[in-house]
Design goal:
This protein has helices spanning 2-9, 15-25, 28-52, 62-78, 83-98, 100-132, 139-165, 168-175, 182-191, 193-209, 211-236, 245-261, 271-282, 287-311. It is built from 14 helices and no strands. It is an all-alpha fold and 319 residues long. It has one domain (2-311). It is 79% helix and 0% strand.
């Protein structure tokens, strides 16, 4: 709740100006809020597919998965280092239904799938950029695009290796090298070694033994990234009807890449706005577009964070 207050106080304009911009947005602002319900529905379905694969536990209903999806993302938005907030919550909520090992593996798998889809989306956006702006490419721009492509390919290779061999034991082993806390992590890993190996086996099994489930979930996450581009288009329709979906896709790809590079900043304060300012200047758009877009997306995020936090207390299983 304190994080929501911080978000409310972090706007760089008066509330009179904020309300004036929201009134100017008209129906496009509620359209943006509702759009994210559809995005969360796609995310929840992608995660539900992972949870329900196999027949050794009761199947999870969609609406409960949707609740944990929305709340998990809300917690990720307001905690430092993103995944340290929502993912432990999801494991805690799933454990009474599917057991600790399955809850951990499904949450880790979905988090990997979510991030993996970002790399696929960034590679796709690079192809779109080359097709649409091939006539305007300079040597420095080609070098930047080459570095971005190399970064994405390295990321894809990392996740392919994680899906093939599992990620839990490797991650714990890496964290065990940290100063001050490394010894405690190694001790905890020793106590839970069997459980961690079970998690790794379940992660590897999804990719190698049930590829259909793997690619269905990945496709849904990729579709969610594509649907998310409509948010920018809806907002920019306030200014001009001539903005294309493909330009919005390129903007969204750059903004998400910029924000993920600074994942450790709570609530991504300033990262989205900075990314928007850069991309609007690169695409030769009015700087006011970036200001209003940042404002509307921040308000939308605030609404869904509040909804997610309220959902924490609803419909919990007693244990």
């Amino acid at each position: 709740m304190a994080a929501i207050v911080v978000m409310l106080l972090s706007f760089d304009m008066s509330w009179a100006d904020v309300l004036a911009h929201v009134r100017r947005a008209g129906l496009w602002f509620p359209a943006v809020v509702v759009l994210w319900l559809f995005i969360y529905i796609i995310n929840a379905r992608a995660w539900q597919i992972i949870i329900n694969e196999g027949a050794d536990h009761p199947r999870m209903g969609f609406w409960r998965v949707l609740k944990y999806t929305i709340t998990g993302y809300a917690l990720n938005s307001i905690t430092p280092v993103g995944l340290l907030g929502g993912e432990p919550y999801r494991i805690m909520e799933l454990t009474p239904y599917v057991g600790k090992a399955k809850a951990a593996s499904s949450v880790i798998l979905y988090a990997m799938m979510h991030i993996f889809s970002h790399f696929c989306f960034w590679i796709f956006s690079l192809v779109v950029f080359l097709v649409r702006y091939a006539h305007a490419l300079s040597m420095p721009m080609l070098m930047v695009l080459g570095i971005m492509l190399l970064f994405c390919l390295v990321g894809v290779q990392f996740f392919v290796m994680g899906y093939r061999d599992g990620l839990a034991m490797k991650t714990v082993s890496l964290l065990g090298r940290l100063p001050w806390v490394g010894s405690r992590i190694r001790a905890a890993a020793g106590r839970h070694a069997d459980g961690l190996r079970t998690v790794d086996q379940q992660i590897a099994a999804l990719h190698t033994e049930r590829p259909t489930v793997f690619y269905r979930s990945l496709l849904l996450e990729f579709v969610a990234r594509m649907v998310g581009c409509f948010e920018l288009q809806f907002i920019l329709f306030i200014f001009t009807p001539d903005i294309s979906y493909w330009d919005c896709l390129l903007m969204q790809a750059f903004i998400s890449l910029f924000a993920n590079l600074f994942f450790f900043i709570p609530m991504q304060m300033g990262t989205k706005e900075g990314g928007l300012a850069i991309v609007t200047s690169v695409l030769h758009m009015n700087g006011a577009y970036g200001v209003l877009t940042g404002l509307i997306t921040r308000l939308r995020e605030l609404i869904w964070v509040a909804i997610g936090l309220l959902l924490i207390r609803l419909g919990n299983k007693k244990v």
